Amino acid sequence: MKVFATAAVLRKGSFNRKLINLAANKMREDGHEVDLADFAEFDMPLYNGDIEKTPDGALELARRISEADACVISIPEYNYSLPGILKNAIDWLSRMDDVPVAGRTMSLISASPSLVGGNRGLWQARIPLECMGAWLYPGMFSLAMAAKAFNDDGTLVDPALEERLVYVLRDYLTVTAAHNAR
Amino acid sequence: MKVFATAAVLRKGSFNRKLINLAANKMREDGHEVDLADFAEFDMPLYNGDIEKTPDGALELARRISEADACVISIPEYNYSLPGILKNAIDWLSRMDDVPVAGRTMSLISASPSLVGGNRGLWQARIPLECMGAWLYPGMFSLAMAAKAFNDDGTLVDPALEERLVYVLRDYLTVTAAHNAR
Amino acid sequence: MKVFATAAVLRKGSFNRKLINLAANKMREDGHEVDLADFAEFDMPLYNGDIEKTPDGALELARRISEADACVISIPEYNYSLPGILKNAIDWLSRMDDVPVAGRTMSLISASPSLVGGNRGLWQARIPLECMGAWLYPGMFSLAMAAKAFNDDGTLVDPALEERLVYVLRDYLTVTAAHNAR
Amino acid sequence: MKVFATAAVLRKGSFNRKLINLAANKMREDGHEVDLADFAEFDMPLYNGDIEKTPDGALELARRISEADACVISIPEYNYSLPGILKNAIDWLSRMDDVPVAGRTMSLISASPSLVGGNRGLWQARIPLECMGAWLYPGMFSLAMAAKAFNDDGTLVDPALEERLVYVLRDYLTVTAAHNAR
To answer: Does B95 score more than 90 pLDDT?
Structure first.
């Protein structure tokens, strides 16, 4: 399958970048083609309903999602909610004639230095995506205490956690293959 | 397919009973077998972690969900949230060794006399169900101003709304068939 | 001030009972009168809109809230949401002519053996209470890893956490005194 | 009292601008000083944790909130959630040493052409604001079917709705005065 993967963050050293890199590697090891994007590729202004032309960055994001069979996003938690940059992108996407996430499956994951691992933010991120018609995978992998979670080679210190990540990704892609073949 | 259908309410004259009855009829017209349950069949006490034996009503609810291929629940909104009786049942279900909703799809619908149609309650009901591992259909049908929405024969006054309900149910069952066949 | 305090749980050995006991002790040390209730005192059936007479347990809960100046509830997290027994009580309260929480302040706290400390459940508990008109204190104290958090005498092993609890309670009661005097 | 008021939207013809204008007029009629801001005054880039200097627009927003005694924001609902531009501003505010909304009261209102009036978005907007320590007024005024709700002079067609708005604002400011005087 072709999987679109990105972390909804601009900071270079973000733990969510590390996590999506690891997820991408694991999916590639399973034989999937992964389009791993830097969210900075989708540059767009703050949403303004008076701007009639959809910005290029939003169109590019829509194109990349549309061309993939599956979509995995790693999302940092800001203030118990989703990042403004992700919601801003959703606001542009939602205005398109053919909303690119409608009817597709998505899987959300998160990493955070906190004990909670960013899980509260994921629950807020689900809402606008489900509102646009996405089927969201229920088992959201959240990596807590991320500052000590990664080895230098990008794998996880705790092999049980890494196995859990692999399980979640495989289960998501299996269901998605069936979903897309309907 | 075999569909389990119920309204999470005890009141006899509830609009959510009317809505699930209509949904059951529509699914039967499409050739599906519907197990339409009265939530009063699942009598159980308030959840108490000290009670070691799972109550019969919770076991019966688990059995009925497990025996079906798909699950449609009509849920009234109480105080912008899900009904206590539904959350209480979820609390019992979640303690079982083999949580019956994990890995299954579910579709939530609602009816309400208000302009909002019970939609806020559905968003709160999703959370514990997704926590237990259910895949929830994104398009939640909410019937607003339900006091004037039904004809005497149980159909909807507005044929466009009834078509929308039929579309949502068919789309849900199509995806579920693919999901279950994986 | 007179403070109503309870844990929304029936299990005898619940960490939320331990936490509300500690909170009650701390408020008493500060000179407040605390009405510490066992939730089992508020026995009531599952909500049924056809029952016209409000159950005695719901009336008693309403009376106890109404007679206090402030209200602190410790709430376990079940399935990332509030307990069914609390939502069921809210469903009965919300039907009363004079909803007892409207215009009052409330403070929610939680304890859990998990790393998250029950915090996700508190965010779901806020919604129906705010819907009924309560002003909820923003800083919700959540005690993570509760199985190892308490000393035998009911105090917390970590003095910094206990100070945080005391701070939150004092700040809540200070604002509540001003709120009530308006 | 001095009230900061704004609509979290850039579109010129937004119903939320109309609603905050009306709210500002009503508060001025009651003798309050209102700092009515256009959200475009708070221009700032998409949040990037690598940018060390807080943008001028975020500093200006923080200053305006800090100088006021109370804060009323009208918030459009985008995809059942808060607008990206508001969340983006919150992300910048939350990183400041002295988070300007902590310990303050806020009142959220909304307008929308839909039957729901933007109310679902307000519930998502509460979360990051409460996370930062704001006390949010529980009664959130939502103006449904906003396309037909305003007279040419900016008042509401339905006098009962306008009375309700005035009641909510007065009640909020009364509690806030007590809150601030503690």
So the answer is: yes
B65 contacts B71 by C-beta, under 8 angstroms: yes
Q: What is the pLDDT of residue B94?
A: 96
Q: What is the ipTM of this complex?
A: 0.96
The per-residue pLDDT for A116 is 84
Question: What structural domains does chain D harbor?
Answer: 2-180 (3.40.50.360)
| Whether the predicted model's global pTM rises above the 0.90 cut | yes
CA–CA gap between residue B66 and residue A157 (Å, rounded)? 38
- Per-residue confidence (pLDDT) for residue C2, from 0 to 100: 98
Nearest CB partner across the interface for A115, out of C80, C115, C123: C115
Interface residue of A104, A122, A126 to substitute, partner B, most B CBs within 10 Å:
A126
Average pLDDT over residues A63-85: 97
Quick one: three-class SS letters along chain B? CEEEEEECCCCCCCHHHHHHHHHHHHHHHCCCEEEEEEHHHHCCCCCCCCCCCCCHHHHHHHHHHHHCCEEEEECCCECCECCHHHHHHHHHHHCCCCCCCCCCEEEEEEECCCCCCCHHHHHHHHHHHHHCCCEECCCCCEECCHHHCECCCCCECCHHHHHHHHHHHHHHHHHHHHHHCC
Which of B124, B144, B166 has its CA nearest to residue B32? B166
Among D41, D47, D112, the residue to mutate for chain A (most A Cβ within 10 A) = D47
From the list A131, A138, A175, the residue facing B134 with the nearest CB is A138
Residue of B nearest to D121 (CA): B120
Which residues of chain D are within 8 Å of residue B119 when distances are taken between CB atoms? 116, 120
Does A115 score more than 90 pLDDT?
no
pLDDT at A95 (0 to 100) = 94
CB contacts < 8 Å between A and D, how many?
A: 113
